[in-house]
Every structure is written in structure tokens, then in C-alpha cells.
Amino acid sequence: MSLNVAIVPAGQWGTALAVPFSRGGHSVRLYFRRREDAAYFNAHREHRRRLPGIVLPPGVSATADLAEAVADADLAVVAPASRGLRDVCRQLAPLLPAKAVIVSAVKALFPDEPRLVSGVVAQEMAAARGGDVTSRLAVVSGPNFAVEVARELPAGTVAASADADTARFVQSALMTDRFRVWTSTDIIGVQLGGALKNVIAIGAGISDGLGMGHNARATLITRGVAEITRLGAAMGADPMTFAGVSGIGDLMLTCTGDLSRNRQAGLAIARGEAVDPNTTVEGVPTTKAAYALARELGIDMPITEVVYRILFEGLSPAEGLERLMTRQPTSEQRLPGLT
Fold it and tell me: Taking the model in full, what pTM does it have?
């Protein structure tokens, strides 16, 4: 069955997702905020600012008219930077067909309730439309660099929804022979894995930037899984989710891949460079939100705490590493998230 897919807005990741949707035989419409960008795309099928040099399939078109973008949409992908999420949802909600499945491609954690992206989307949609969209809401998260997905290099991701049928619907729409999609009903765990791995990736970048070596990075990634799982279990996630594609898979990619903006931010910090407080590196605001949430719930997250103190309290990267290495000895023979 061919679907009408809207992607709002046409950032790098949203535009990349247009490729597997189109390859699956669906009609995709990208929403650009600037008319000149939409016109350029329609003339060249190329996002000149976000994915230069990559020509998208013929089934993808663009518009600068939001109402036109979502008209008759069977599925709408919401893909802004986290700081623009509420605004986009408020604009989208009154225009979106009632039948449409909503898919979030945003990886973030917020400092106030609702903490998860799905909660923010559901809240804004309910406020504008007067109904609960939970059963028609899904998230997509996994080890996915946008440029590689756009180039159709083999990749995999997870489509999660509280409603299993919705997760399978998104899986069917998005899956191709180059982009494998698994389903999950653990929408909490899938989102936390996608958001919190950015915090650990900043730490991994700092470690690499200090020249600490491969052993240190591997240890940091592994202990990162443990603290993400502890927080996830406290919030009602399935601990096993963090051992999967949207958990350790995404964490490994973001901590080791040079295309990772969060890893690059960590490398810059290790060089003594300041991080722009208005940065679109999602790990920076997520670190603040995760640190506050961990303290609220009484969850031990030492890597997150050190990254927080480096980012927001002026702790030196070298001292942060020393704090992690000299913590009170413990046993690893524990069930992550449960003890």
C-alpha cells in the first residue's frame, strides 16, 4: 500500500528518512521553512544545506507551505531540533489529518514534565486537537548517521510505540532492503537510549581528546550502558531494551563515529574550547536534564554527573576523569537497573 508521508521540517535526519520511505514506494513531501530551499530541492532533488551532493529519489518533493506538506498525510514525521519541538507540534496539530500516524525522529530529554519527546508531542497534539494521540504515536531511534541512510548504506533502527500495531505500521512503511526496522512497545526505553547515549558520547569524545586510549573508551561505553539502564528501569523501561539496537547499538555508533556531533563536542572540550550554550548538539541540554532527573530519582549516574560538571560548572576534563577512576570500588556482578 502506497502512503502519503510528510516530513516536518526537512532537516538532515528528516530528509535522510525520506529515502527509505520513497524506496518503499511511498510519496514523500518535505517541508522547508524557506521557499528558496524548497524550490532548489524540487529543481535538483538535493538538500543543498544539509545533504549536499546526495540526489534523493523521484518520489520525494518539497514545499514551503506546511498545510500542503501534511495534506492527506497517512504518516507525519516530526524531526526538528529538540528546542523547536513544541513550536513545530503546535503548528502541525491543527493541519494534520485525524487518520495520520505521528512519528518522532527527535532524540532528547527535557528538564520538566513531560520528560520524553513522546510526552511532549502527545501533550501538544492533545491541546490543539482535543484528543489522545498515544495509540497513533511512534518514535524511531537507532544507530543512524543521516548521511549514511541517505546514501543507502546498510543500517537498522527501531520503531517503538505503546501500540504494537502502530509500531508494525511504521516498520512496514520504512523498511527496505537497505534499511532494516525492528519494532518495540518499550517506547520509554527506546527514547531514553537515543537521548542518553549523547551524554555518554560527549564523555567519550573528552576521553579520546585527552588521549586516554581505546581501553578507557570501551570502559566508559560499557559503564554508560549500566547507568542508562539504571535510569531507564527507574522510569519503567525494560532493561533489555538497552542491550539492543536502540540502546547499545546507538551508543556505540555515537561514541566512536566521527560523524557524531556529540563526540565532536567532547573532542572540542578536551582541546579547551567552550561549548556554545545555543548549540544544536543535543547531548548538551540532555546532560542537564538527565543530571536533574537522576538526582530527583536517586539514581547513580557518575559519567553523566561528570559530563554535567564539565559542561556547566567548569570542572576540568582531566579532573573529571580522575573522579571517575577513583570512585569507591564496587562489584560488576549486579543486574543493571535493578540494583
Answer: 0.95
